[in-house]
Write a structure and sequence with these properties.
Two copies of one chain form a homodimer. With 123 residues, chain A is an alpha+beta fold. Chain A contains four helices and four strands; from the N terminus they run ββαααββα.
């Protein structure tokens, strides 16, 4: 039978079950909220440097996240923008967009899990 | 329909969905793997100072975690050991033990969630 903690936790407080998810390989995380935001910002801003700036992240750090992600995927997640020259911006590959879609769906399932667990605190 | 990332992630790598859970109140975390380990070590070693030492945590930090936890509960989680004198050790309250049991059950449900999500990476 499930353990209740209703009588233990102060019910007048807004207590929630919170959490974080990531993808890992050999114990090392390579995708989670940070890389997800970076990919979304690249899509939005059209370049890695703009995306990094928008996140207050160094260009070097942004490239490290992308390179690390690329070691886990069959396709690069970012390519130079079509028609672009050196320094002319980057665009996400179709696979990176699918990865974003997957992560959004995963996040939604996790949100449901957390909401159910938060409800359970009250019963 | 659920998005598949099977073709995107390298299938020869052992890729897993990993995660972390905690309890929060007004956006501030007050219980998770750290406080859980601290309570377990207090139960094991019979004192807060021994527990902190076993975790390479300062006595001050251990007390901060406990005090923070106590602000969210209807009962203190730790009391001086019965018959103990000043500095004579601490013991968990029945409610703290229930909190441990609850967290173990929560962790188990989360493990199932993560295993299901890891399976889903392959389909």
């Amino acid at each position: 039978m499930a353990k209740s903690v209703k009588h233990i936790l102060k019910q007048e407080l807004e207590i929630k079950v919170g959490g974080k998810l990531w993808l890992e390989s050999e114990g090392e995380r390579f995708f989670g909220p940070g890389p997800m935001e970076l990919l979304e910002k690249i899509e939005e801003t059209g370049s890695i440097s703009n995306a990094a700036r928008a996140m207050n992240m160094s260009y070097k750090k942004a490239w490290e996240l992308i390179n690390h992600l690329n070691t886990q995927t069959n396709f690069p997640v970012v390519v130079p923008q079509a028609g672009g020259e050196k320094g002319g911006g980057s665009t996400l590959t179709a696979e990176a967009i699918e990865l974003i879609e997957y992560y959004k769906a995963l996040r939604k399932r996790f949100k449901t899990f957390l909401e159910n667990e938060t409800e359970r605190l009250k019963i």
